[in-house]
Amino acid sequence: MKTGFYPGCSMKGSAREYSESLMAVAKVLGRELPEIPDWNCCGATAAHNLDRDLALALPARILAAAEKAGMDEVLVPCAACYSRLSVTRHELLDAKGSEALRARISGLIEAEYRGSAKVVNILEWLAGIGGLEGLIQAPFARKVACYYGCLLVRPAGIVKFDRPEEPQSMDRLMKKIGAEPLDWAFKTECCGAGFSISRNDLVARLSGLILDDAVARGAEAVIVACPMCHLNLDMRRPNIEKRADKKFRIPVLYVTQAIGLALGIAPKKLGLQRHKVTVRFSPAVDKSPAETLPPSGTRPGEA
Amino acid sequence: MSRGPVIQHDRQVLAERILEQTGVDVARCYQCGKCSAGCPLAADMDFPPSQIMHLLQLGDFPEFAELALRSHTIWLCLTCEICYCRCPMELDIPKLMDVLRYESLAQKKINPKAKDIISFHRAFLDSVRTTGRLFEMGQVIDYKLRSGHFLQDLLQAPWMFFVGKLHLIPERIRDRRLLKRMFARTLKAREGRP
Amino acid sequence: MARIGVFICHCGENISATVDVAKVAAAAAKIPGVVHSVDYKYMCSDPGQQMVSSAIKEKNLTGVVVAACSPRMHEPTFRRACAEAGLNPFLCEMANIREHCSWVHEKGEATTNKAIDIVRTLVAKVKKNKALLPIKVPVTKTALVLGGGIAGIQASLDIANSGHKVILVEKEPSIGGHMSQLSETFPTLDCSQCILTPRMVEVAQNPNITLYSYAELESLEGFIGNFKARIRKKARSLDEKLCTGCGLCCQKCPTKKIASDFDAGLGMRPAIYVPFPQAVPNKPVIDREHCTYYLKGKCRLCEKVCPTQAIRFDQADEIVEVEVGAVVMATGFDIKHGDFFPEYGYGNYRDVIDGLQFERMASASGPTLGEMRRPSDGKVPEIVVFIACAGSRDPAKGIEYCSKICCMYTAKHAMLYRHKVHHGKPYVFYMDIRAGGKMYEEFVRRAIEEDGVQYIRGRVSRIYERGGKLIVKGADTLLGARPMEIEADMVVLATAGVANPGAEALAQKVHISYDSHHFYSEAHPKLRPVETNTAGIFLAGACQAPKDIPESVAQASGAAAKVAALFSQDELIREPLIAVVDRQAPPLYSTCVGCFLCQTSCPYQAIEKEEIRGRDGQLIKTVAKVNPGLCQGCGTCVALCRSKSIDIQGFSHEQVYAEVLALLNRGESDV
Ligand SMILES: Cc1cc2nc3c(=O)[nH]c(=O)nc-3n(C[C@H](O)[C@H](O)[C@H](O)COP(=O)(O)OP(=O)(O)OC[C@H]3O[C@@H](n4cnc5c(N)ncnc54)[C@H](O)[C@@H]3O)c2cc1C
Ligand code: SF4
Ligand code: SF4
Ligand code: SF4
Measured on CA atoms in the order C250, C251, C254, C258, is the torsion positive or negative? Predict the structure, then answer.
């Protein structure tokens, strides 16, 4: 079984730490994650908002490249990319009239798309790795709010993963590393997704509701599995705070960062210093490596 | 004085095209409103999703179909899939929204309030077209130019650069020519631009 | 020589619109043996039937084929017409050119040709038909009623009062069904127990009714007029004759914290219990799953306190066998439970309750003594949201139908809440208000106008808990589908009415048909609403579909009238379409070789052994014989018989081969 890796554009840029932490964790777990050769952008919201064929062709080219490289499955850690790739695979393989569509899209990408490579998200991939508990060095003993967002669990008929309401897969993972996942209400509510730049007013409102609930229930960290969610909840924090007219201290960690800390990987290697919101947990609870982190330095952006 | 909408039975209505392209039959919607109740942006929309469905159901009145195409809603929809997930009739509203956006673009019936959102999408895809990937810095600058919001957000850039999130030089894929061809045969062909 | 008459019906335009009936008549006239062939607009009308009988007399017909609708529709009509004209009714056959031809094909030559083919096969068959005599069977004038809810109670009383014996089987320790759980009933708001209890007592006192409570049907065999039922009386762990119902045992039982089904999980009961004070019979049962003695081998406190020494820890289930002539199914319904509504937190948040829980909370004898107190902390809820159609009319949740009763009981609930909490605010989210029925619409208007219940037209998307409040996210579709949030203290879901969990298994046990939701199917949706497709088995109440009390009672009385009509005869006439085993003159006597494979295969135990003896009494051979009273004509034995010694009268090998050959040799001369 060969598992390929599709980083997607944001993991190369604004979500660099997601990629760094994933690689660090994969190394400890002894997994190799070769990148799909010459992968392109999946087109994200922009493509499917403007052109259907393009929205299918961009992901199809990625999947075809993975097939060509002999990959049986593709790990897509970004929830948004995961959604685009899953939807494309569904439309081209299982949906009504998919044969004609597949032929047309294969024409566009000038390669045959067969559909042999499965698309897996980060939670599926991590859940499939046995023995994680045995490798824990420093239990991540924090109260966490697992934030799944929209696209990991919906639409249920296509992603066929966990349940669309009250999902549990991330909660189970967090339990494995010693965290206490909280019962909260915004697990699958929308953070504002791709409106981060074009309508950051809406993002500030929706993301604010999410942080509000997480904090009200006593969470020490929000755990995410999507660069877009991270961008909105972390980097957009000043906008959120301005709109809500209050401060939220709660850090937002990628699921791989939380696991990395539990595996004893140095915070720097997990890219914690790249967050907008300092990764510092409420002092009431026992110490974990993250607390000893130096504050992430000066912030030219706020200066 | 206006007479109000008048029925036109003799043309293929939007709802039929939607059925053909997506398999979503708007006639199945019984206006329960559950989609609007759960939509994160329903309060910001001119027509919350259940009303879009009803406009399409009454598509025999061209004015109503037109309202759907010119709505702000179709550009605000986040494709968060909540409505589809909870719709008792299992109607794939986000997929239907895609078709409405394509029709709105093709018929040049774009809601003026959606300008920023569409500029952002275009800037995004331009970056993909030229480099094969999203060049975040380039896109943001492109978007600023298109939308005219020059200062908003630019203040973030130095910080992002500092923490290593922003690259000044775009990553490029090897087969960029294929990407150009793909764009030429899809989006560009449809919009009649080179 | 056969002299066959063929009668082709237009069925108004039902047949003639797609089939060229004149051409069929002309083609039929040419079939060898056919001496008369006509077509007519409505064969089933009086003049049409007249055409058949006069032709029989004038042309001396030996067989009749009516080419018209399905035999299920009019076979009896034409067979009666033949009998009146002096022709044995079993020499009349229907050629179904409507359901099998005109309705399912387009107009055209091929369709007409198919109709001709159908007529041809039936002509070939009828030539081989034999005159048959109907079978008479005696009727056992005792009815079995399954389920002791209001429907079963009403049916039992009506049958008993018309002078017949009734055996009423109820699976719970007491009769009463869901009605006994209700607080007050729409549309009059009379107290449910107050109107139900007298009926329950009547059941107990009626000498014609034998009640088996805490009992279930084990098996049912036989046929209309002659069923044999085996009933399992579950062990109550109690000698019912000795028990006086004093209730001391229930008071003293130390295991008291068992969620009470009767209180819909809101109240507690001991391990030895009577479900409610007015129970009939008023005798406790021991719940062996929770009783300390059965679990740990120690306790037996009830035994010690019982003044009449009625407790029997070693009691075993008992099987009773009864013979009955008719069965009334009255096993009722259930409402949907469980976590089928994760977006509403049903089954997760304690203050999101269902309709039956609300009934118990509102009931003066319920766990809160009729006070509105929410389950989580016992606080009086100040804002209550009621959600109609919770799971009904919801294909995504597997239920596309309307549960029919919930609009009304939701209005009732909101009203009752307001009567109990004067300053409280009830909100109802609804899609449509279905209040068709006498005084029903007026009832809903009263809730809105007099009791200030706020109706919001829209479905709720989600409910979540925040700081002890339930946040209800809805929208009002009459206000531009504007989303809205209500911070409620309690939410009541009118969850869908569904079939009982055991409904399917029971239907299979008694051989009746049921729909995809496991509600029992009536024989005809309009004209035979209280009968099933199985003769002698009738329907009453919500086991057929969700319905309210007046409807359940009306249907129960209807079923009882059907039973009484059946019992008004001493004998039943049955069609002789049954299996017969070959009999011949000596020395062969029968082709049957006596392997008795048929006997093991017959689902109705209709095959017996017959010893053929010579004049001197010497056994010559043992062969199979069919009991005409038991045989249902299913044909299983025919298919299994290796020496082809069994045949079904009216569908003999000879007749069926003739039909097939007529199709294969189409156009050629007759066999
Ligand atoms: C919340 C709620 C409120 C309601 N309020 C009203 C109201 O105000 N007014 C009104 O008119 N109607 C009301 N109804 C409807 C009413 O409850 C039904 O119409 C009525 O109970 C139907 O009676 P039934 O005898 O057919 O079924 P049930 O009441 O369900 O009785 C069936 C009986 O059969 C027994 N049984 C089941 N399976 C077996 C088996 N295999 N063998 C033996 N016995 C079996 C059961 O234990 C039960 O005793 C309400 C319903 C609900 C859910
Ligand atoms: S949830 Fe579905 S059925 Fe209800 S209004 Fe929306 S689209 Fe229509
Ligand atoms: S997919 Fe669009 S319309 Fe549906 S709930 Fe999300 S934002 Fe609203
Ligand atoms: S009776 Fe009313 S509440 Fe119940 S399913 Fe039908 S419409 Fe919905």
Answer: positive
